[in-house]
């Protein structure tokens, strides 16, 4: 067989030259023979290859090879074998003498797979769906490692983690300029992170439990229900079947931030399980801007994650996951310590968070594909903002069943029903009875049904029709339709057009409540409408393949209209909180462009640019509508990731994001500018891969050392005790922590190690 | 005579073979066993497209793929089941729309990277794998190395 296949190869590859040689110079064809050795041992199955004519052969079991019928000339002879460094030398063939080449190969510390580093995991892609879904894997986020999803998500074009408070570093995720409450965060397709937990819950999701993250910019209520108004982020957790047996990722920074992620896979009968632990610690107060306050909130966080996957007949799905997060964070005066918690002498914001999540999925053992999904989460927050306490509890129970049916060749039908029950209670008048004594937690049952059909109505044309109906006790019937269309004329071009709607039911959770004192009656306006959004977007993906480069251009134009915003009115009647729809609307419109470059050499470039115009139109006191630019929504913003793989298992990544001016929350006659300057946060990382799944990485974050010039207002008087001082405070400034457009954390180094052992 | 040489050359260049389907493979193997080369790709992978360019640029690689083995292409995320070596492999869902085809999982293991090359012998034993794009010369070297490995 050996001779046979070799002969066949030679026959075909040399057929041309042989014919030619027979005519012109038959006598000069020669043989190269030799032996391949390493450490005195013969190497079998090493390849021998002439670069000039593509002729090749493998060595036999004693390391010998013979290349016959080689035309006279000068050749580059290459040899390689698994586990050895490639070998190259020049060979000159003259006249009638056979040439003998003896080769000694050197051991290579890296495996064969690592010598040529073009292997790739999907870092970013668009799903097949007519709805434009962007998919990111942890590989993408590892290019600038962060301890939590909240920070990492900023690497996505058009998505901005916005810190709303310079002291406690709470934040929310803005998609296309719209505030956090309009962004829905799902875990495994279920509403786990909502309302209260959007503020701190996002910090507790370690990248290590993530298999991939799906981002939809634009509403998705027709499938996901309430809250999916501006966009959604769906975190898909790792599958125990494909997870590594052991994984470890630990890093530290020069600011003494430490993050450890560790996971092991267990097997019990037909079940497989991952147990993962994430621990983040930052306990080193720093005040580099000398305002007397911590620059970055001190944090200690532990998250334990356990997911079970069960092997069932016909690959039916059954999984159960649980996660527990505990977090202790504080920020404030550098002199603060726990004894000052809740006092009005030394200012500090201290938040303890406890979270429990349960997620289950079960496919019924019937021929039809019917899935049952359920989730439960409990979020408990115990916090003081200065001397203002805020104690809140939120439970969300969710259950859903859907039937996934392929009807013929052309229809893919999804129909289901869901029930969501939210319980919310806090220590504010918002959840207190009118008499100020009886606690009245908010209970929101929200049943809904949905149907969706993905219809291939003509070759290359796909249409998605979706509709959802929900019933809410305040709003009554809520309808959310959606339509999306995808046209793929060929593999190089894809056009998507979609229209979708989103809604959000009234929610009594508002941090403003914490500041209220006394008892208030909560009044929900008679004909309260749910908050609604309408979105249209057009997306075009163009894939350009050249001989040595590949370019993917992905352009989206979007227009979203938000209306019926629900706000609590505290002023009309001091004994009431009146919830009513705001007269007015908000618009988010713009264009985003993602361009990815891949080359046949190991350079990869991914860039994203967004231009958007986000504004609100509201009626003022006399009924005249007034337009205002959305806060913290820069017109121009962008991201970039540039990766290069070097020999010997090294790779380098340059990542960053930049923002144009954005409107900021200022006080009357504020000395701080209304708009932020242009700025860029850039990071660089070098990674070295070692055999057996080890990786060491290190680099510099915030390479340009960008820190905002202004942050807190009157940090020396955080309790506003001396505000009424016309001499020293003529403008009547008050303490505020909201003026934020970039982290207060300057340049810092980081170093980490990763280990992945696969079966 | 030169014309014949030219004809031979052009015949070689233009004879780009279509990959075999998995259904055809079983029949072909029954009649004439040969090593099997599987290229594992996904629809979204840019390097898979670059890889195809590298194949079409090298007549030698095409010859090896056509003559020395049965050459197949597997979409690692396809939903259609595949019959391979008397076993049926299906799509393995991760509880949502995404997942991996079990044949791809079996061949490339837990670290999917695309394109992936797998060389198997006549008895369907995996001889060599490579995850990543290979330039035409490296691909030729890789194929030669593992197509010949079985013989010694």
Automatic annotation (TrEMBL), chain A:
What InterPro entries does this protein's entry cite? Beta-barrel_TonB, Beta-barrel_TonB_sf, CarboxyPept-like_regulatory, Plug_dom, Plug_dom_sf, TonB-dep_rcpt-like
Topology of this chain in the membrane: Multi-pass membrane protein
Q: Give compartment(s).
A: Cell outer membrane
Q: Which SUPFAM superfamilies match?
A: Carboxypeptidase regulatory domain-like, Porins
Keyword flag Magnesium:
no
Q: What organism is recorded for this protein?
A: Chitinophaga tropicalis
Q: What is this protein called?
A: TonB-dependent receptor plug domain-containing protein
Q: Which keywords does this Swiss-Prot/TrEMBL entry list?
A: Cell outer membrane, Membrane, Receptor, Signal, TonB box, Transmembrane, Transmembrane beta strand, Transport
TrEMBL record, chain B:
Q: Which domain of life is it from?
A: Bacteria
Recorded hits in InterPro entries, A to Z, give: Thioredoxin-like_sf
Protein name, please?
Answer: Thioredoxin family protein
């Amino acid at each position: 067989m050996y001779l046979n296949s070799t002969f066949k190869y030679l026959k075909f590859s040399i057929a041309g030259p042989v014919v030619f040689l027979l005519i012109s110079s038959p006598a000069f064809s020669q043989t190269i023979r030799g032996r391949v050795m390493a450490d005195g041992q013969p190497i079998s199955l090493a390849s021998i290859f002439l670069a000039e004519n593509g002729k090749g052969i493998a060595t036999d079991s004693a390391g010998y090879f013979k290349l016959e019928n080689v035309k006279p000339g000068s050749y580059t002879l290459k040899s390689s074998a698994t586990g050895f460094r490639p070998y190259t030398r020049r060979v000159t063939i003259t006249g009638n003498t056979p040439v003998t080449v003896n080769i000694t190969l050197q051991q290579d510390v890296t495996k064969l797979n690592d010598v040529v580093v073009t292997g790739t995991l999907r870092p970013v892609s668009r799903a097949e769906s007519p709805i434009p879904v962007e998919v990111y894997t942890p590989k993408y986020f590892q290019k600038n490692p962060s301890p939590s999803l909240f920070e990492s998500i900023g690497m996505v074009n058009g998505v901005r983690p916005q810190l709303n408070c310079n002291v406690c570093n709470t934040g929310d995720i803005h998609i296309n300029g719209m505030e956090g409450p309009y962004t829905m965060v799902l875990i495994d397709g279920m509403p786990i992170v909502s309302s209260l937990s959007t503020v701190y819950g996002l910090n507790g999701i370690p990248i290590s439990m993530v298999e991939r993250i799906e981002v939809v910019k634009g509403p998705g209520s027709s499938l996901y229900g309430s809250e999916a108004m501006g966009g959604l982020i769906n975190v898909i957790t790792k599958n125990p079947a494909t997870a590594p047996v052991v994984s470890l990722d630990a890093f530290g920074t020069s600011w003494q931030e430490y993050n450890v992620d560790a996971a092991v896979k267990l097997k019990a009968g037909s079940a497989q399980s991952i147990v993962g632990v994430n621990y983040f610690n930052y306990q080193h107060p720093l005040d580099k801007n000398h305002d007397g306050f911590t620059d970055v909130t001190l944090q200690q966080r532990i998250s334990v994650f356990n997911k079970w996957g069960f092997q069932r007949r016909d690959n039916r799905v059954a999984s159960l996951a649980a996660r527990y997060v505990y977090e202790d964070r504080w920020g404030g005066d550098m002199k603060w310590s726990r004894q000052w918690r809740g006092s009005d002498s030394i200012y500090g914001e201290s938040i303890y968070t406890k979270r429990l999540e349960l997620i289950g999925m079960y496919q019924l053992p019937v021929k039809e594909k019917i899935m049952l999904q359920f989730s439960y989460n409990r979020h408990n927050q115990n916090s003081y903002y200065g001397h203002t306490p805020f104690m809140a509890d939120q439970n969300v129970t969710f259950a859903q069943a859907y039937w996934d049916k392929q009807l013929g060749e052309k229809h893919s039908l999804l129909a289901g029903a869901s029930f969501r029950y939210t319980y919310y209670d806090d220590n504010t008048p918002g959840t207190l009875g009118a008499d100020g004594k009886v606690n009245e937690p908010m209970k929101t049952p929200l049943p809904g049904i949905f149907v969706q059909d993905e219809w291939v109505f003509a070759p290359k044309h796909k249409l998605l029709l979706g509709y959802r109906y929900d019933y809410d006790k305040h709003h009554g019937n809520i309808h959310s339709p959606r339509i999306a269309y995808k046209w793929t004329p060929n593999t190089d071009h894809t056009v998507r057009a979609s229209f979708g709607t989103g809604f959000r039911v009234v929610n009594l959770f508002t941090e403003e409540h914490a500041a209220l004192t006394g008892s208030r009656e909560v009044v929900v306006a008679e004909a309260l409408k749910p908050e609604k959004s309408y979105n249209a977007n057009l997306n075009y993906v163009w894939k350009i393949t050249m001989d040595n480069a590949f370019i993917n251009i992905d352009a989206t134009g979007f227009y979203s209209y938000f209306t019926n915003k629900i706000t609590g009115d505290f002023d009309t009647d001091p004994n009431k909180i009146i919830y009513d729809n705001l007269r007015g609307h908000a618009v988010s419109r713009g264009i985003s462009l993602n361009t990815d470059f891949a080359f046949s050499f190991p350079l990869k470039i991914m860039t994203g640019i967004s231009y958007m115009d986000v504004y609100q139109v509201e009626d003022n006191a006399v009924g005249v509508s007034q337009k205002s630019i959305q806060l913290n929504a820069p017109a121009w913003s962008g991201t970039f990731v540039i990766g290069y793989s070097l020999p010997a298992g090294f790779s380098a990544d340059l990542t960053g994001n930049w923002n144009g001016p954005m409107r900021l929350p200022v006080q009357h006659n504020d000395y701080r500018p209304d708009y932020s300057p242009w700025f860029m946060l850039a990071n660089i990382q070098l990674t070295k891969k070692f055999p057996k799944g080890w990786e060491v990485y290190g680099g510099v974050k915030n390479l340009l050392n960008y820190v905002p010039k202004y942050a807190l207002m009157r940090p020396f008087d955080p309790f506003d005790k001396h505000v009424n001082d016309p001499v020293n405070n003529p403008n009547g400034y008050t303490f505020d922590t909201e003026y934020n457009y970039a982290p207060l954390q300057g340049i810092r180094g980081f170093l980490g190690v990763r280990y992945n052992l696969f079966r | 005579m030169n014309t014949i040489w030219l004809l031979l050359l052009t015949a070689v260049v233009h004879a780009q073979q279509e990959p075999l389907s998995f259904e055809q493979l079983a029949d072909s193997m029954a009649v004439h066993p040969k090593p099997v080369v599987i290229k594992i790709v996904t629809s979204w992978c840019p390097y898979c497209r670059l890889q195809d360019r590298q194949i079409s640029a090298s007549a030698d690689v095409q010859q090896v793929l056509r003559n020395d083995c049965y050459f197949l292409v597997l979409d690692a995320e396809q939903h259609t089941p595949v019959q391979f070596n008397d076993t049926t492999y299906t799509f393995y869902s991760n509880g949502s729309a995404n997942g991996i085809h079990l044949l791809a999982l079996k061949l490339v293991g837990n670290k999917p990277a695309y394109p992936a090359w797998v060389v198997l012998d006549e008895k369907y034993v995996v001889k060599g794998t490579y995850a990543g794009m290979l330039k035409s010369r490296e691909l030729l070297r890789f194929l030669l190395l593992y197509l010949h490995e079985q013989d010694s």
